[in-house]
């Protein structure tokens, strides 16, 4: 399974840049493999992202903004959903991955099952 993060390399928005860096930095720091898909430099990536964000996850007006996160072709969420999962020590579940042994998330899951 490959985590795909759709980003915009040439965004004029500092908020979008910070959110993208936050997601990518977290994935790198936790050694979670991912692919960056640039929607600014590649029209196919932009088109694919826009078509595959579910209706109920789209903004009321305009297009979904990066970062958008997928596991293979399955939509996992946007930055706000990622941030909430991180705050709740549930990023691996959010990404559709198994938490590694010894991680806070794995420990929390073990406590819930006990």
From TrEMBL:
<dbReference type="InterPro" id="IPR051033">
    <property type="entry name" value="SH3BGR"/>
</dbReference>
<keyword id="KW-1003">Cell membrane</keyword>
<comment type="subunit">
    <text>Monomer. Interacts with PFN1/Profilin-1. Interacts with ERBB2. Interacts with ATG12. Interacts with BECN1. Interacts with translating ribosomes.</text>
</comment>
<dbReference type="InterPro" id="IPR006993">
    <property type="entry name" value="Glut_rich_SH3-bd"/>
</dbReference>
<keyword id="KW-0729">SH3-binding</keyword>
<comment type="function">
    <text>Appears to function as an adapter protein that bridges proteins together or proteins with mRNAs. May function as a ubiquitin ligase-substrate adapter. Additionally, associates with translating cytoplasmic ribosomes and may promote the expression of specific mRNAs.</text>
</comment>
<dbReference type="Pfam" id="PF04908">
    <property type="entry name" value="SH3BGR"/>
</dbReference>
<keyword id="KW-0472">Membrane</keyword>
<comment type="similarity">
    <text>Belongs to the SH3BGR family.</text>
</comment>
<dbReference type="InterPro" id="IPR036249">
    <property type="entry name" value="Thioredoxin-like_sf"/>
</dbReference>
<protein>
    <recommendedName>
        <fullName>SH3 domain-binding glutamic acid-rich-like protein</fullName>
    </recommendedName>
</protein>
<keyword id="KW-0963">Cytoplasm</keyword>
């Amino acid at each position: 399974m490959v985590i795909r993060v759709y980003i915009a390399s040439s965004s004029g928005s500092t908020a979008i840049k910070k959110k993208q860096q936050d997601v990518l930095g977290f994935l790198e720091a936790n050694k979670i493999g991912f692919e960056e898909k640039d929607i600014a430099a590649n029209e196919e990536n932009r088109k694919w992202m826009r078509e595959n964000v579910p209706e109920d996850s789209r903004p009321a007006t305009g297009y979904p903004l990066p970062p958008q996160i997928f596991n293979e072709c399955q939509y996992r969420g946007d930055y706000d959903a990622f941030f909430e999962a991180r705050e709740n020590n549930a990023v691996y579940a959010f990404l559709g991955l198994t938490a590694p042994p010894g991680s806070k998330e794995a420990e929390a899951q073990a406590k819930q099952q006990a």
